[in-house]
Design goal:
2 copies of one chain form a homodimer. Chain A is an alpha/beta fold and about 240 residues long. Chain A has an 8-stranded mixed sheet with strand order 1-2-4-3-5-6-7-8, with helices on both faces. In chain A, helix 3 links the parallel strand 5 and strand 6. In chain A, helix 2 crosses helix 3 and helix 5 crosses helix 6.
Chain lengths: ~240, ~240
């Protein structure tokens, strides 16, 4: 049966962010999608429908500074977007109280997802091409970051002690799927390596590379590859959880 | 069709170790099984038959100091057993020249498998409850190791720079499956964490934990869990490789 879809306005302080809830009947869990910088919830809609068909209540939303709030694009900070993610998480938390949400984040959204785990219980994490940033400048506009400095930072081997996002990963005890793009020039493979070596306590860890793909998965075949990896992972995790419970 | 099975005697210098080859028709690859300390190829036979049915020529064998050579159990060193593994690898290498063997190692066999990757091309690695040892004492009888010291060593967080096996892992660029037993008192979870964080260059990494299981997988349900994980992983890797080629 097709999941029910509902457009929602999620309050974040005095702001609002636009979201969409995909609600199947008899849900087994919840999943929050967090899109990347310069993207929107549109990138997540198809996958949210698919994951909803597996019995997960899904929520997609537009980060502040994107889509309807794109006039604030140059002003939005990581702090702003972290508050968006927390507010969206709390929507799902209320919808299904017996099971904490899992998070599916891409790029900047993956980075925010890892930080969320240090503030909220998160059941599992899917990180596609997760980005990494220096801890400093948290309240600086994200659009103002020095690209040269950022590129250099992303070439470094960084331990969990040296970065808040990686430190959060090192404490995370749920299931983790990390997907990297083989030909990613925005987030090089060093970054995915930093992430996956940080997850020393994860209940399970799955790292996959999409052959030939770029950061944005700009060809349909790469989008399909990612969807297949995601679906396989959900099937395996579901099969395990159903047996245990 | 049932794979052909053949008992072989593998020369290792002036010694011989007993092995079994499982040869399906039209093989797509080869797989070497390396058993754990105080075990024998018997632990691998069923799984070798299964993996052979997926089109892999499999080789199981008895490490020196085990089964027919158990009277040398108290004398066998890691150097001895490493030579066994290399000799067994070379058997498979000759059987199918166009594709380097993958290795499936359990406990001590997993440790030896990782070390093999620094001496021979290895296509992929499956490590079940891989053990870890100090580099020193390489030519000392394995049975003479100080158990208290070993247990203490296995509680430590060890980087790839500090251990030859972990260093080999840090250079490995193939696909990796690591399976740990949740209630393993021989190889605690610290060790699996050291292994999986070492694999910073792996093409893919899959880490799974068998719930409630002990080190030896002494209950049939845990053996089944491991077989299922192994089969799932083979199916996924095969599907990917078939599409690429």
């Amino acid at each position: 049966m097709t999941p029910k879809e509902e457009v929602v306005a999620i309050p974040v302080g005095i702001r609002r962010v636009a979201g969409t809830i995909f609600a199947p009947e008899n849900a087994v869990g919840t999943a929050l999608f967090v899109h990347g910088w310069n993207s929107s919830q549109a990138e997540d809609i198809d996958r949210a429908r698919t994951i909803a068909s597996f019995g997960y209540i899904c929520l997609t939303f537009d980060l502040y500074g994107h889509n309807a709030t794109s006039k604030f694009h140059s002003a939005a900070t990581r702090e702003d977007n972290m508050l968006d993610v927390i507010a969206a998480y709390e929507v799902l938390e209320k919808v299904k109280k017996d099971s904490p949400p899992g998070i599916i984040g891409a790029s900047y959204g993956g980075y925010l997802a890892t930080l969320l785990t240090s503030r909220k219980p998160v059941r599992w994490l899917v990180l596609r091409a997760p980005a990494l940033y220096r801890d400093s400048g948290w309240q600086m506009p994200k659009a103002s970051f020095d690209r040269t400095d950022l590129n250099a930072y992303r070439q470094l081997v960084i331990s969990a002690k040296e970065n808040r996002a990686l430190e959060a990963c090192s404490r995370f005890q749920g299931d983790v799927l990390i997907v990297e793009s083989e030909c990613d020039t925005i987030v090089p493979s060093t970054v995915a390596a930093n992430y996956r070596t940080a997850f020393a306590q994860a209940a399970s860890l799955t790292f996959r590379r999409i052959e030939s793909a770029d950061h944005a998965l700009s060809k349909p075949v790469w989008q399909d590859d990612y969807s297949k990896l995601l679906i396989n992972w959900f099937k395996e995790m579901n099969a395990r959880d159903l047996r245990i419970s």
